[in-house]
Amino acid sequence: MATPDFILELRRQVGTIPLSLVGVTAVILRGDEVLLGRRSDNGALTPITGIVDPGEEPADAARREALEEAGVVIRVDRLASVSTVPRITYANGDQADYLDLTFRCSWVEGDPYPADGEMTDLAWHSLADLSAVAAEHRTRIESALDDTLAARFIGGS
Q: What sign does the dihedral 133-136-141-146 (CA atoms) show?
């Protein structure tokens, strides 16, 4: 997985201490299917995810990640949920705390394929059977499917 240059620069200065980063999840829908990919780093089946670059609008990051990782053009329809991800410690010792912004997205065009190597396989999966998807990502997909226009927030009460 390619680490963004701005993170590499930060790591040169701060080492492996936890970084607070903003991530996006693009739940890409096509009819009654969702686009899922098998991550090359851990084999998990997930929607498209990525890190927001400095100064980048989060919805633009979701659209960029869909094109970079899956080769598909999408429309970002709305913010579906905002949540934190438990601290991740990578194999090299780097630690990250992510604020995840999950977007409900619609497929516009393109046949999905592993465009940049972050995914080993991409395919459309029935929304009726997400049993192979980890609970964290099922929750993000469920948030995107919720027709309530307001975003779902975890905590804050």
A: positive
CA distance 44 to 51: 18
The H or E element spanning position 73 is strand 73-89
Residue 47 to residue 36: CA distance in whole angstroms:
5
What is the sign, positive or negative, of the torsion defined by CA atoms of 32, 78, 19, 11? positive
15-50 residue pLDDT tens: 999 999 999 999 999 999 999 999 998 899 999 999
Q: What is the dihedral of CA 63, 67, 73, 75, to 10 degrees?
A: -10
**What does the alpha-carbon distance between residue 152 and residue 143 come to, in Å, rounded to a whole number?**
7
The DSSP-derived string for 40-54 is TTT--EE-EEEEPPT
Residue 95 and residue 87 in contact, taking contact as beta carbons nearer than 8 Å: yes
For 144, the token pair is 């995107």
DSSP, collapsed to helix, strand or coil, labels residue 138 as helix
Per the CB < 8 A criterion, the answer to whether 80 and 144 are in contact is yes
Residue 126 pLDDT > 80: yes
For residues 48 and 68, give the distance between their C-alpha atoms in angstroms, rounded to a whole number: 10
